[in-house]
Write a structure and sequence with these properties.
DUF883_N; ribosome binding; mainly alpha; transmembrane helix; single chain; DUF883_C; 91% helix; 105 residues; elongated
């Protein structure tokens, strides 16, 4: 994985996490607003419900995009390993060696 791909993946994960937090907070605000009477609060509830629905859709889209990306990376990795088994073995051995050196310190 290149540094750019890794940063992009981390950025997507951060967006999904932020959307999750925002969704949870919005649902909590809607729950608290449900106990308040008044016309202004009804408008607030409706706006919060709209935001929650939008966030849920955005979160579902982001998760689907992340899953497609992970599946694509898996397929590409498997294809590379099947086409270049000795190189893949060498890379794995080198990574294992480096990890062993780092752990031994």
């Amino acid at each position: 994985m290149t540094a750019t791909t890794e940063q992009f993946s981390l950025g997507k994960q951060k967006i999904v996490e932020d959307l999750n937090v925002l969704l949870t907070d919005s649902e909590e605000m809607l729950r608290l607003a449900a106990a308040l009477p008044g016309e202004g609060v009804d408008a607030l509830r409706e706006r919060l419900r709209t935001h929650i629905d939008t966030l849920q859709a955005a979160l579902a889209d982001a998760q689907a995009a992340a899953q497609r990306g992970y599946r694509s990376a898996t397929v590409q990795t498997e294809r590379y390993v099947r086409q270049n088994p000795w190189q893949a073995l060498g890379i794995a051995a080198g990574a294992g060696f480096l990890l062993g050196v780092l752990v031994a310190r």
